[in-house]
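STRUCTURE:
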């Protein structure tokens, strides 16, 4: 008797799996809107990259603490963490080293 990959496994759904994706996207976009309102445009990409990596770390810690299944059929907190890492890497690739040093306060002017 052969079982399929999905049969015989228990996927415990947590309260995180029932949160609506648009609600999570709106909540996640709020800090980006605040950053856009308060930072100069040249510092937005490095700040977005740093925020995305912090959000990914928090999502991963939340996924570990709630023991959310990594291979569920729906969107889980692990997918959110992966999306945050992808956004952080993309924003980091497009930002310049001078912008990062300005964000950290190391350099104050461009050369």
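SEQUENCE:
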């Amino acid at each position: 008797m052969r079982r399929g990959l999905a049969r015989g496994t228990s996927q415990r759904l947590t309260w995180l799996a029932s949160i609506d994706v648009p609600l999570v996207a709106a909540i996640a976009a709020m800090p980006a809107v605040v950053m856009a309102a308060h930072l100069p445009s040249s510092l937005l990409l490095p700040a977005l990259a740093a925020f995305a990596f912090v959000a990914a770390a928090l999502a991963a810690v939340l996924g570990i603490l709630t023991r959310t299944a990594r291979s569920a059929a729906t969107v889980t907190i692990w997918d959110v963490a992966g999306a945050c890492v992808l956004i952080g890497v993309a924003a980091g690739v497009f930002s310049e080293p001078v912008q990062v040093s300005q964000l950290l306060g190391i350099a104050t002017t461009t050369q």
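REMARK: The helical segments are 21-38, 44-66, 77-94, 97-104.
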